[in-house]
Design brief:
Two copies of one chain form a homodimer. Chain A is built from twelve helices and 14 strands. Chain A has about 400 residues and is α/β, with parallel strands linked by helices. Chains A and B meet through helix 1, strand 11, helix 9 and helix 12 of A and helix 1, strand 11, helix 9 and helix 12 of B. The structure holds a DNA duplex (30 and 30 nucleotides). Chains A, B: This is Transcriptional regulator.
Chain lengths: ~400, ~400
DNA sequence: GAGATTTACGCTACCTCCTTGCATAAATCA
DNA sequence: TGATTTATGCAAGGAGGTAGCGTAAATCTC
């Protein structure tokens, strides 16, 4: 169930994509129960009849399944509500209980490790941050991250073994076994087997992915391009840049997660960005670089030619590379993310868009990411939720359930 | 069921990827029957016990399902065979009947239309070719293609309404509605709605796809890279070049099928190929250009510096562009296909590989396509098989069943 | 060649789950 | 207070899957 299972499978056993597992009445019940649960998950509260029409199951079956789900703790009965048409017996409203499971999103960044605990609808319950000043070694970084995990779990009152799903974001290439293949900017990070490192702490498999490839999930979830099918997401972070590629709604990893290394590719011209003063800001401390970027933005908005030409030449290089990539990928959106895009506001995006309008396919739209600095953690939470195993999981007991009031 | 249905869906209803449809006993039976059928499809012949262990169903259930499948005509009972261990009652062997369905692969190429009829295992039963000399207009080309369809169906003794699945290959961008958005090299072809054109002739929806995107399916099926997960497939045809991108085992289309237009992309340098004398050969007639290419190959193999430099400069441009793309896609293979790669043998591939070894990621392997001129038709047949609806289809009646002996 | 052994087949009994349909419950409206 | 409307609870019936036993059809042994 960890990574690397669905790769390199021969897709040509036969026709369409139905399941291949044997179905018995129990499996049927399980599948139908999950269907009901999903229907409730997607809505605020639903009556039996509403669930029946939404799922295609008979009302009787829905009724029986709800009895089970309520007994297990997945579902709460909201006291009969007034009702729409005004008359008739009011229907009982059933609601999914997001509190009965906790997932973790872990963002290991250069200067800090951030751990967010969220409920099953992805609402953040608590965020723990452990700063990582002075370029620490591998062991120190891992220990600090574990402290952040412990703090987050303590805050929401959940033991590690009860966590429903975990996703870890890291800079560098994450291979199909959940280890970092190449990461040059963090000490001793190349070769670290993150999935193995964290696996013993939890009862569920630990998912590990490159940070840009996770941030793009947040963009699809609660960002500028919800539910988009194909897009390119650029993480402009200064020295540490990356790309998230989404195709057919799914993030694409390539062989051992190596996809999207556009800054290593000769021929796209994006390696020229390294020389840009804007990229150079990445070397500064977070507060400092943000101030610098804001200063540039303000100067440019006042019409200062030096600031404008700085942004323009940056946009030139970016637009050239992204135009070429757009012919290859035919994405619906190109999204500019990372703190640099965040700090430069719409200035950069509009300028890149103007330049791409001439050279890229006409259907490609340029967007600025609407996500703030927590894009990567939110993406990790999204990935954790996507991997949460409804059928295997058991809801947390009432006394163990965290409430959103507890944490931050 | 045609194209364009699974696009742009929000992927974040909840967790993993189970089905969302209500399951009743009948659906369960249908799914289990399909599971049994698939097991038989993947093997030559199987006993009840073998099917039971392969599928996870009880032997009794397998037995009952086989009774149905045999009655419907899907399955044949091979007379009890000697048996492995030597003793014990010999098991009945059940075999999937590939003859009970016919699929069509249609390749509309510049100089001809080719229609191949195949059985459900993809064995070609008959191939009909209608030449298209003198750059005909749209109507003429469509009429000629219909003639080829009629001939192929006559040869295998099947009426159009009985065809189980159809896939059409065409040059140009095929949008999500099965129409050609842009195709400049064939008269009046831009805007032709191929799915609609052919739909009335058949009882099943007609799948339409760009020819390079279909050829790559043949490569995965019976070519140089069977079952590969990620690869880039180049169709070098002279004037009409294209690319097929496979990611996670699935061909990638992009917005309205526009993905892979690497020759329109400034910045990759591949537009420079247009100037190459090798590409120029595409303007000649098929026999002529093949002779010319073979002549170049022979001269190069004898060490002729002019021929070698011609191939080298071609390989240079190709390798530069493909190296850049390899950083972006991280494919396992880059495959050179099309008649040009076919004609130049391993010469081109080894030279491209040597140049890419320096600039591309180390895991990328360069391969020459092992498919001949029928790559596109075979890919169309593969696509048609992939879309064949087992559960909806009814096996052909015995008197209508084509036999491989009939056709070519 | 008859009986033992081995493996496969056919079938009955039973279980789970889904569906239909009707009687009952709980609200509003006249 | 009774009619109307909508929701709930429950009994009966049907479809499908599984377990397990007796029988069938081979080979092996003496």
């Amino acid at each position: 169930m960890a990574q690397g299972d669905m790769r390199d499978r021969p897709r040509h056993a036969g026709a369409g994509d139905r399941q291949m597992t044997a179905l018995d009445p129990r499996a049927m019940r399980l599948a139908n129960a999950e269907t009901v649960l999903r229907a409730l998950y997607g809505a605020d509260a639903l009556s039996q009849a509403a669930i029946a029409t939404a799922t295609g199951l008979s009302r009787r079956t829905v009724e029986l399944i709800l009895v089970d789900l309520e007994a297990e703790g997945w579902v709460r009965v909201r006291s009969t509500e007034p009702h729409a048409s005004g008359r008739g017996r009011p229907a009982r409203q059933y609601a999914f209980r997001s509190e009965v499971g906790v997932v973790l999103g872990i963002d290991i960044a250069h200067d800090r490790s951030t751990v967010a605990a969220a409920d099953l609808r992805g609402r953040t319950l608590h965020t723990a941050v452990v700063p990582m000043p002075g370029e620490p070694e591998r062991a120190e970084r891992l220990a600090g991250t574990r402290r952040a995990v412990a703090e987050a779990l303590r805050a929401v009152g959940v033991r590690p073994g009860q966590v429903g799903s975990v996703s870890v974001a890291t800079p560098g290439n994450v291979n199909d076994k959940g280890a970092v293949d190449v990461e040059l900017s963090m000490h001793g990070w190349t070769g670290v087997r993150l999935a193995e490192e964290f696996a013993p702490d939890f009862a569920v498999p630990v998912h590990v992915e490159n940070n840009a490839k996770l941030a793009v999930l947040a963009e699809l979830w609660e960002g500028a391009t919800p539910g988009a099918d194909h897009l390119l997401w650029l993480m402009l972070e200064g020295q540490y840049n990356g790309m998230g590629i989404v195709m057919d709604g799914v993030p694409y990893r390539g062989v051992d997660g190596a996809a999207g290394e556009i800054f290593w590719a000769k021929g796209l011209g994006l390696d020229a960005l390294t020389a840009s003063p804007l990229i150079g800001l990445g070397r500064l401390e977070p507060e400092e670089r943000r101030a610098e970027a804001t200063a540039i933005l303000e100067r440019a908005e006042r019409g200062d030619p030096a600031a404008l030409s700085e942004v323009d030449s940056f946009a030139d290089v970016l637009a050239r590379g992204l135009s070429a990539l757009s012919w290859v990928f035919a994405p619906r959106y190109v999204v500019l993310g990372g703190w640099l895009a965040w700090a430069l506001g719409d200035l950069l995006a509009t300028r890149v868009a103007a330049r791409m309008a001439r050279n890229a396919p006409p259907f490609v739209a340029v967007r600025r990411s609407t996500l703030g600095p927590d894009a990567v953690v939110r993406g990790a939470i999204r990935a954790a939720l996507d991997r949460y195993e409804w059928t295997a999981a058991r809801p947390l007991a009432p006394e163990r359930r965290p409430s959103p009031v507890d944490g931050g």
